């Protein structure tokens, strides 16, 4: 069983007197920086020259420095930058300005797991990864709660790396909900697998294929959209709140029987074999190599696939139907989390 820690397990003295630089001010960056500040931690935000986020961070009352100066100033540096950009920024701005005894922090294991960043043995290397998007990390903290976090230690030069990671998780609200101990490898590989096979890749392809099957059979696209995409939120919410068994209890007997008897035919041995292959590609580093190469070459294939997705019939039908339901997007801001991981 996993080790799970709460507020009573966290010794905040490990971070109370530390100077922390949060590099990046996207979805996770703004939440970490503001939560740390309101927890009494001495924090600055490190941003690249010309970043559009400078004014946002300053307007929120945060001190902003360039990345090199923020690293020089800090005792602990949290890197909340896009996975594919971290290595080059580390080599140019972070690594040369680290000192022995510093702590290098990540919210995703990607760059350490795949040896894209190799910190010196004289610094602590740890991870604090909230299991939710930044806006939720921020909102729950303000409300007095928190989002569960993962912590991991890759290098413990000081002997206090785990204690510091736990104190950091507590300072951003994670210990209010629970902090689970893991490793960089476990977090990275399971996170990538979840994104590719279930949360993003698997779900979007299942929804799109279901929609296309109904439309090809002559059913109205609007009806297909409601059945295969819109109502998915109801089912996911039930599983989120009560687990799979709770969801099955809440739906009709007809729906549950269809789930129990037809679900295994959709997700069959062929699909499970493909899942295993995808996991092996993650574990071997094949996916990481492919993604880094794609980014370094200008992301031509990535953008082509992204653009093709915008032109799908399900997207056009959905846009028209969502315009009939303005409450869906009321009061919501779209913030893309580029820190790495699904959150």
Strand order of the largest sheet: 1-9-8-7-6-5-2-3-4
Rg (C-alpha, Å): 22 Å
- The number of strands is 9
Stretches where pLDDT falls below 50 for ≥5 residues?
Answer: 338-343
In round numbers, the mean pLDDT is 95
Task: Describe, in plain words, how this protein is organized in 3D.
With 343 residues, the protein is α/β, with parallel strands linked by helices. The protein contains 18 helices and 9 strands. The protein has a 9-stranded mixed sheet. The longest helix is centred in the last third of the chain and has 19 residues, at 232-250. Mean pLDDT is 95; it is low at 338-343.
Attribute tags:
disordered C terminus; globular; 343 residues; alpha/beta
What secondary-structure arrangement, pairings included, does this model have?
Blueprint: E1 4-5, H1 13-16, E2 19-23, H2 27-38, E3 42-47, H3 54-59, E4 63-66, H4 67-73, E5 76-79, H5 83-94, E6 103-106, H6 110-113, E7 124-130, H7 134-142, E8 149-155, H8 161-171, H9 174-177, E9 179-181, H10 184-199, H11 201-216, H12 221-230, H13 232-250, H14 253-266, H15 269-284, H16 286-296, H17 300-310, H18 313-322
Helix pairs in contact: 2-7, 10-11, 10-15, 11-12
